[in-house]
Structure formats: C-alpha cells, structure tokens
Amino acid sequence: MTLPEQKQLWFEHYKTGAQQLEKAANIKGLVSAFNANIDAVVKLTGAEIKKLIQAVGADESDLMLEKHNSIKRPEDALRGLIKCFGNGIAEEWIIENEQTFLTLLELLGTEKLQMGGQGGIVANVAAVCGVNPVYVHAASLPKEQAGLFLNLPNLKSFTDDGKAMQVSLMERKSDIPLIHYIIEFDKDDRITVNGKKVTCPKANRFIATYDPLNLKLEIDPAFDRAMASGKFEYDYLILSGYQLLQEKLPNGKSGTERIDESVEKIKVWRKNAKEHILHFEVASTQDKIIRKKLVDVFGNFADSIGVNERELIDIMEVIDKPDLADSCNAHTHSVNLFSALVEAFAYMNVARIQLHMFGLYITIQRKGFKLKPLQNRNGMQTAALVAAAKASTGALNSAYVLLAAQHKKVSDVGISELNDLAAYIDAAYGRNELRETGIFYHKDFDVIAVPTIIIEKPVTLVGMGDTISSVSLIGASL
Ligand code: GLC
Q1: Beta-carbon neighbour count of residue 31 at 10 Å?
Q2: 141, 294, 315, 444: which has the fewest C-beta neighbours closer than 10 Å?
Q3: Which atom of ligand 1 is nearest to the CA of 244?
Q4: For the chain, what is the mean pLDDT?
Q5: What is the torsional sign of CA 186, 315, 235, 17?
Q6: How far apart are CA 144 and CA 147, in angstroms?
Q7: Do 335 and 449 contact (CB within 8 A), yes or no?
Q8: Options 3.30.1110.20, 3.40.190.10, 3.30.980.10, 3.40.1380.10; CATH of 60-111+180-210
Q9: What is the pLDDT of residue 294?
Q10: CB-CB contact of 124 with 37 (8 Å)
C-alpha cells in the first residue's frame, strides 16, 4: 500500500465521526470529578521571556540549573519555563505561596481566561458533544469559575439541598478563584540565557499553578452527598485531579491519605450506581510517592486509564522499569512506548489503558472488555477529530465546531508511527493488520491503534489529553 492509499483508507475509517457524535446523546450520564479551575493563558516569545527575567531580576546562571520542581519564588517559575521551552516539553509546577502568586499575577496579567483542570475540561467537552446529563465537581465555584462552564442545560452540578442544577448559573459566593498560569511557547523560537542559546524544539507549555483547594483534593460535600445517594445515573465516571497532590500537604496532612479518603467516598458512589465505566486520567504527577500510590490504587480500582507519553514514562520510573524509561526518553516513538504500555498494563490490574502520543493513539485492553475493539477505534477517531478541532479553533464552545477538521487526512508521522508499531508487533507477537484496520487481536489482549490528524500551527494544546481520553469513550457508542 502506498502512503496516499493508506491515508485514504484511514480517511474512510474516520467518516464514522459525525455518526458517533450523534450517538453521544444516548449515553446515560457522565460524571466528571474532581478538578476544575481557571486557566490564565499567556503566550510568550523568547524575547518576552527575556524581558521577564529582567523584570524579576533573576540570576541567569541559576535559571539553567536542575533543582526542585516547585515554585517558591518567581525565579523558579522562570526556571521551569526555560526548561520546558528548551526541551519542548510540558510540565506543571505548584506555586507554594501567595506572595509569589501575586507577583506572577502582576507580571503576567489575566487577559485570556478559559476553563481549566481535567475535570472542568472533560465536563465541557462531554456536554458540548451532547452527553446528557453531565455532572461536574468544582472545589470552588465563584462567578468567574461558573462562567467558564458552557451555558448548556445538560451540564450540571449540585446545590446544597441535593438538586442538580445548570452549573454555569450557579455561584458559591464565598469561594475563591483558583488560577493556573498556562504559559505557551512556539516551536523554533529562541532565547539566550546566561550566554547559552536555547531553541525550542516543539510548541508546548509550562503550567504554574496556585490552587490551595484542588492541591489537597478538596471535595464539595454537596457533590459527595448527591453521588452517594444513588439518585443520579451515569455510564461513565471520569476521575482526575489527583496529580496536584503532594505527599506533604501544606496543612500537614498526607497526600496518600487524601487518596485513600477519596477512594472510600467513591466506593460508596459506585456501590449505589448502576454499571458504569470508571476512567482515571493520570496527568503529570510530579511527586513520586503520589504517582506510585495512584498507580497502585487506581490500577486496582479503575476500569480504564489514560496517559500521554510523558506520563507513561513517569509510570515506568515508579514501577521499577528504569531501562524502559530511559529508552523511551531517548527515543520517544511508538515501538518503545508500546513496550512501556504493555508493562503498565501488566502491572496495573485495569481492563483498558490508552496512550495518546504525538501522531498516534494506542489502546490495549482485555479480551471481552465492554467496548469492543471497533467501538474503541470509532471512539479514538472521534477523539482525534475533536482534538484537531480544538487545536485549530482554540475552543470547543459549540457543537458545530466539533467536526471542523473532518476534511483533513491523518498525518504522515501518525502513519509512520503506526507502521513501525505494526512491524514490531509482526515480529514480536505475530502477523497483524494494524496498518489497515488499526486492530490487532492477540490471544491475551486486543490492541487498537489510530493515527491522528495533526494541526501544524495549533491555537492551543492545553487540555488536549483530557479531551482525547474522554471523547475516546464518549465516541465509542455502539
Ligand atoms: C492541569 C492544570 C490545568 C490545566 C489542565 C489541562 O490540570 O492544572 O490548569 O487546565 O492540566 O490538562
């Protein structure tokens, strides 16, 4: 098969997208918890970063050092930003005190605000896809936060007296806004720091987060009561937000204890709910004790797990696979990442795990899982379409933009990653048709791999993973 033929074949596969989105209305509810926050998005050029360094009066030699991944002073935010810029990677660091946050607020402003947090982003995208109802948890719900939820009647949270209400119309007056700075930068941009020229290899972002509530996984009691009541039905329970936890919390408590406490609550929700799929979105978790705990807890509790390439490599670090982590770091391609995915799948006792990497999504799942391989492929294609629409338009605020990229073909890099993976699986596991169908039926598990559409100059990349993981499920209806 030639490259144009293979791309045409995938273009045909992708045509189910519109139909899958229509079927989203048949889903009987989706719950998205826990983290919703306000993202303040700032795009910076190398030259602008240089100006910030001067404004802060930072010592440039200090900015090039590897130190703690947290923000105790404004200089630390610059250090993290330069690290991400120079490596073309995404990281999120926590701002540890209010004074530093206020300094950054003054330097960076709040010009562009949008929905942030996996929980909030998943809720908005599920609602705009037509899932009805979507129940979303918000640790804090001042007017500024409520206004970032889409103005849709199917997107709800719970009032104190246990009623489901459209969340964009709600307001908890004494709550504070939780602001995360998303600092984006472009590929090929340059900066000179401490006499050293740094060129950005890939458009990406650095996140500086000030969020005293989600940081300790604060759970809204009204939401917890409503979920525990068993009165509200759902097919999907999507959990995220745990990545912000640290083992030593500012209030003296331990992050692992908070994980256990939340899981006890969720066990009650699930006991009182009908059959559903629990998906856990790992997200970039800096604290290794928390990361390990999450892998162990949700590995035995969730049905489905979502990771990007970085998060998968980070998992290798804590399940004692340092060599695999190293090879994935050295060559971050589908073959190495697939090996890591197989290890993660073997370590965790989950039925399904999905990786979203640059150009390709890969799912491994147990034989007989509720969502059959072809359903998964449909879901993953729908996710790729919606993600491309998000990247090219910047926001998924209305249903009609969801298919904005449906005329586009999958990327060359996606096809090449897919073909490399297929060749590897041919040799390691046996003949397969991944190149043509994206599906490989192994005797012990099924693999689904979908090459994706890539938008050359994305308006935004933040929240992409959350969108992909959730729409892969939402779009997988029969
Ligand atoms: C993290 C950040 C949040 C951002 C999200 C996107 O949760 O804290 O600000 O919106 O990632 O995935």
Answers
A1: 29
A2: 444
A3: 8
A4: 96
A5: positive
A6: 5
A7: no
A8: 3.30.1110.20
A9: 98
A10: no
Tell me the mean pLDDT in the region 129-134.
98
Q: Is 126 exposed, middle or buried (0-12, 13-18, 19+ CB in 10 A)?
A: buried
Predicted confidence at residue 69, as pLDDT, reads: 87
Confidence of residue 286 (pLDDT cuts 50, 70, 90): confident
Pocket test for ligand 1, best of 39, 246, 461, 467 (most atoms within 8 A of CB): 39
Q: For residue 224, give the 3-state DSSP assignment.
A: helix
Class of domain 3-36+117-176+215-474: alpha beta
- Please give the span between the terminal C-alpha atoms of the chain, in angstroms, as a whole number: 30
- Using a 6 Å cutoff on CB, does residue 175 contact ligand 1? no
Question: What is the pLDDT confidence band of residue 129, given thresholds at 50, 70 and 90?
Answer: very high
Residue 276 confidence (pLDDT): 97
**126-to-14, 236, 396 alpha-carbon distances in Å:** 20, 11, 10
Which of 81, 155, 144, 134 lies closest to 114, judged by CA? Answer: 144
Strand-pairing partners, residue 158, are 164
- How far, in Å, is the centroid of ligand 1 from the Cα of 4? 37
Q: Match 């912000």 to its residue by tokens.
A: 244
Cα R_g (the chain), whole angstroms: 21
- Spans of all domains in the chain: 3-36+117-176+215-474, 60-111+180-210
For residue 182, the ligand 1 atom closest to its alpha carbon is 9
Q: Whose CA is nearest to atom 5 of ligand 1?
A: 117
Only one residue has tokens 């209400």, namely 165
Query: Which tokens belong to 369?
Result: 């899982």
Work out the burial of residue 163: count CB atoms within 10 Å of its CB; fewer than 13 is exposed, 13-18 middle, 19 or more buried: exposed
In contact, 344 and 445? CB cutoff 8 Å: no
Q: Would you state the structure tokens that stand for residue 335, as one six-digit string?
A: 């073959």
- Please provide residue 279's backbone torsions phi and psi, each rounded to the nearest 5 degrees: -110, 135
Distances (CA, A) of 317 to 45, 314, 343: 33, 5, 12
The SS3 of residue 245 is coil
